[in-house]
Specification:
This protein starts with a helix and ends with a helix. The strands form 2 sheets. It has a 4-stranded parallel β-sheet with strand order 2-1-3-4, with helices on one face. The chain has a 4-stranded parallel β-sheet with strand order 6-5-7-8. The chain has 2 domains: 40-186, Nitrogenase molybdenum iron protein domain (Rossmann fold, 3-Layer(aba) Sandwich), CATH 3.40.50; 190-301, Rossmann fold (3-Layer(aba) Sandwich). Helix 4 links the parallel strand 3 and strand 4 (117-120). It is an alpha/beta fold. The chain is built from 10 helices and 8 strands. Helix content is 49%, strand content 12%. The chain is elongated. The chain binds zinc ion (ZN). Zinc ion binds next to loops.
Length: 302
């Protein structure tokens, strides 16, 4: 009899222990789930903004960083918002954009997800280049603008996610210091480019050219220099000959056909630069691209 009672007690104890174990396990899973859901979610519009934000947020706690547009999807300035991309912004706390009209869909996004906060990285950037009708939004090819964009992102992220404010500011300062080093090298090593004439067939380089004080004929091509008309091409060749232009600047991934035609007819040399708009998700890709451009541009000055 005693033995029977003992067995019953042991069985009951086992059942109680099992129930406690299951309860604890479930509670910890719920905890983990709520922690995941409470992460601060950051979505960037496209590659250059992603790389800036990747640097600013490195080591931040309880955050998730996503990029909306496809990697190497090119420039957003002629992009149409897809349903898949809209969905990526669904649970975002903040959406970080370049600004200056590159993301012409931000209003639409806000209509769909009104609670998402928009961070405009171009805030307070002065001297936006305009052709009268349209502003040139490719501001990040200017190292000086880029620093301001990084600063803006860090500042706004610190407001919306104060938990990581110290990390954001520290990261931004370190990143900006690296850009400044590069900026100093540009100033020292490329000072002889001032006043140098060039034809530029990719509007992304208008800001870079301005910083270097290049005397550039800017040709708007929507990054597709193959769209040039035969007349426009002829007049460019005439201009290049008349002004003795020795350099043609295009994007690394651009079609080279027109540039080659101009080069053949005028003897000018083609320089392929990086736009900072494509690459892998490595945090130094902008620095690497601008370093690469520095080396290319040194040749232009020789
Ligand atoms: Zn563009």
């Amino acid at each position: 009899m005693k033995k029977k009672i003992l067995i019953t007690v042991i069985v009951l104890l086992c059942i109680v222990a099992l129930i406690i174990f299951l309860c604890v396990k479930n509670a910890s899973r719920n905890d983990k789930q709520s922690q995941e859901n409470s992460n601060f979610k950051i979505v960037t519009s496209f590659y250059p903004i992603y790389i800036m934000t990747l640097n600013v947020t490195e080591g931040a706690n309880n955050i998730e960083l996503k990029n909306m547009a496809e990697l190497n999807g090119g420039c957003l300035h002629d992009y149409t918002l897809s349903t898949t991309d809209v969905k990526k912004v669904e649970d975002a706390n903040v959406f970080i954009e370049n600004g200056v009209g590159i993301e012409n869909f931000t209003e639409k996004l806000l209509q769909i997800y009104s609670r998402v906060k928009i961070i405009d990285s171009s805030r307070e950037i002065q001297d936006i280049i305009s052709n009268g009708e349209e502003q040139n939004g490719h501001i990040w090819t200017s190292l000086d603008n880029y620093k301001k964009q990084v600063e803006n992102i860090a500042y706004e992220l610190s407001n919306y996610n104060s938990e990581n404010a110290d990390i954001y500011n520290k990261n931004a300062n370190e990143y900006i210091a690296k850009i400044e080093d590069l900026e100093n090298r540009y100033k020292e090593e490329l000072s002889n480019l001032s006043g140098e004439k060039a034809i530029c067939l990719n509007e992304a380089f208008e800001y870079l050219g301005r910083d270097l004080n290049l005397d550039m004929i800017m040709v708007e091509t929507d990054h597709e220099e193959s769209t040039l008309s035969a007349d426009r091409l002829r007049s460019l060749i005439d201009q290049a000959k008349a002004s003795n232009i020795k350099a043609i600047i295009i994007g690394e991934d651009d079609n080279t056909q027109n540039a080659e035609t101009i080069a053949t007819e005028t003897g000018a040399k083609i320089y392929k630069l990086k736009t900072g708009m494509s690459g892998d998700y490595s945090k130094n890709s902008y620095l690497d691209d601008m370093e690469y451009n520095l080396e290319q541009l040194k040749e232009l000055g020789n």
